[in-house]
Amino acid sequence: MEFSTKSGTTLAYDDRGPSDGPVVVLVHGHPFDRTMWNPQAEAVERAGHRVIVPDLRGYGESTVVPGKTLLADFADDIAALLDHLGVERAVVTGLSMGGQIAMEFHRLHRARVSALVLADTSPVAETEDGKVFRNRMADRLLAEGLDGYADEVIDKMLAPYNVTGLPDVAAHVLTMMRTTAPEGAAAALRGRAERPDYRESLAGAEVPVLIVVGADDTYTPVADAEAMQRLIPQSSLVVVDRAGHLPNLEQPERFDAALLGFLGRL
């Protein structure tokens, strides 16, 4: 399905499950698309929830928007999509950049969040060195495309033993990265470099929060997830063994058990 925002951006999305069921929004990371959430969309739908899974602007089948895309732009797109679908509140779930978009959504549209699921992500604002790195990476992706980048980071996106041990998963992750439009990925990198610090807004969260992290995630390690869990009053933490930065794909059964257990307690 597709939806066009007032700005003219077209978002591709899936809307699955009973229309009157509790709503879960799944927000993908960078540089992926909504197929990243296929295992979870199926599991959550089977559990009786309505599942909304968008391709973010610049990714997948959505409009490629060059320049700079702030996390607020992504969050506002999701709010507009929920308006279009007649959804007032949802459990907003995001992984990596998607987790930061979920935090931004909570900061800007707090009343619309019934719960948060933050996977393999960080609430901390970008460092000065990180800003330089992300902008240089944006320049590189525009110049070279994502093929070389995908080959370089596959054993960080997945734990190295899963790159070889789960070849179908590795192939899916590589395909998502290689087929992402460089302009969209670069715009997101430039916007992400300017992200605010979400620790204050998370500390004031009045909804349940589930934090999930792969035990062998090198981008956002377990220690970072533990620090975030200590920060948020109504939060719980699940560490997924035998997984890196994408535990939802590396260990979908364990990730789904954590997610469905959390949803069942709401």
TrEMBL record:
<dbReference type="GO" id="GO:0016787">
    <property type="term" value="F:hydrolase activity"/>
</dbReference>
<dbReference type="InterPro" id="IPR000073">
    <property type="entry name" value="AB_hydrolase_1"/>
</dbReference>
<feature type="domain" description="AB hydrolase-1">
    <location>
        <begin position="22"/>
        <end position="251"/>
    </location>
</feature>
<dbReference type="InterPro" id="IPR000639">
    <property type="entry name" value="Epox_hydrolase-like"/>
</dbReference>
<dbReference type="InterPro" id="IPR050266">
    <property type="entry name" value="AB_hydrolase_sf"/>
</dbReference>
<protein>
    <submittedName>
        <fullName>Alpha/beta fold hydrolase</fullName>
    </submittedName>
</protein>
<dbReference type="InterPro" id="IPR029058">
    <property type="entry name" value="AB_hydrolase_fold"/>
</dbReference>
<keyword id="KW-0378">Hydrolase</keyword>
<dbReference type="Pfam" id="PF00561">
    <property type="entry name" value="Abhydrolase_1"/>
</dbReference>
